[in-house]
Sequence to fold (449 residues):
Amino acid sequence: MTPTPPLFLLLLGLIGAHATVDLRTAAAMAAGLCKTRPTDLIFIIDSSRSVRPSEFEQVKVFLAKVIEGLDVGPNATRVGVVNYASRVKNEVSLKTHRSKAGLVKAVTKIEPLSTGTMTGLAIQFALNVAFSEGEGARVKSPDISKVAIIVTDGRPQDNVKDIALRAREAGIEIFAIGVGRVDMSTLKQMASDPLDDHVDYVESYSVIEKLTKKFQEAFCACSNSATDVVFLIDGSKSVRPENFELVKKWINQIIDKLDVSDNKAHVGLVQYSSSVRQEFPLGRFNNKKDLKDAVKKMAYMERGTMTGQALRYLLDNSFNAGQGARPGVAKVGIVFTDGRSQDYIGDAARKAKENGFKMYAVGVGNAVEDELKEIASEPTGEHYFYTADFKAMTQIAKKLQINICQEEDPCECDSLVKFQKKVEDALQALTKKLESMSKRIALLENKIV
Fold:
């Protein structure tokens, strides 16, 4: 038999290897863009008699699609499923399945219980059992989110208000999805604040899938994005020393949620009253422990409230390369104040946003909401926060999410999942083509002989 020409074999090998490596690289890149925050997630699904079997199948499809968009794994997102009617059944524990395939398969096997609607009992079970360490939940930590997604279509036959409050106080973020003739007031009693983000309604189970994208994006964090974050803190005399200590704890709560490192989040801190004082610039501390220690040491300035002057300092100094800011890196300013500014803020607030800074405004007590909105980026509803009481600032820390995605690499989980599927299909098609080409070569070789 005449040997196959070496040049042809080499060419074929290079083409096949290059195409395969490119596709695998693309798949790896796609997988790396969308990382979900480490989360213990429990679905609590109503399978009472009002949910028809065909409708329950649609709920399972919804669950499966949300799971497909998650970064599932023991160190990433763990998923559990609680099924309820008049009784509660733990269908999937957080410790049971460590892969998407196993989870989705388990979800497809869930059967409806078809009795009453004891939603309160289901929440209590989730709090006491499903989110327990024995069932695979991780120890409470600022780095790990605890989330429950409740899907129901009716009015509960027991009390949900008190047990839902206990669950939220335990650090569980609750999303409530209502279908059809659901009692909307009950959904609001269960869900976390802000209610606009945590309560959803669909008219029928046939359209519940439209919520898939929302929940995929809710858990999606662009872990590859570097961010420069500067806190601008009001240290005026109206804050008072005891409340200033609460403000420092609040700053450290937010730092706990950031991915602080040389290549990811850098944090700077500025305090202002009648004058402005930089506590430390961006990049001085690149680990959470040193950052938090530096925040604790910040001394209270007292005196006036020159928020406009502080914003100008942010513009002219804090995000300057000479002060540690990195070129081409997303810039985030977090302004905290407890009162009306004693100077004009309009020009500096506008210029900060024109410069591309993402601005958050947080107000307490006598803070003026119109000023907060003027400082905050669009949409203002997601970038300004107000509470009357300093002790409630911990709730704002939980709501304030600093997730910056580069415009050229948007964190679109569902798009990436689809892309990965296309890559896998392309790899399979390429393998088949190579097999076909190999057979043709063998036939050509036989003809040459």
Observations:
- The CA atoms of residues 165 and 190 lie 7 Å apart.
- The two ends are 5 Å apart (CA to CA).
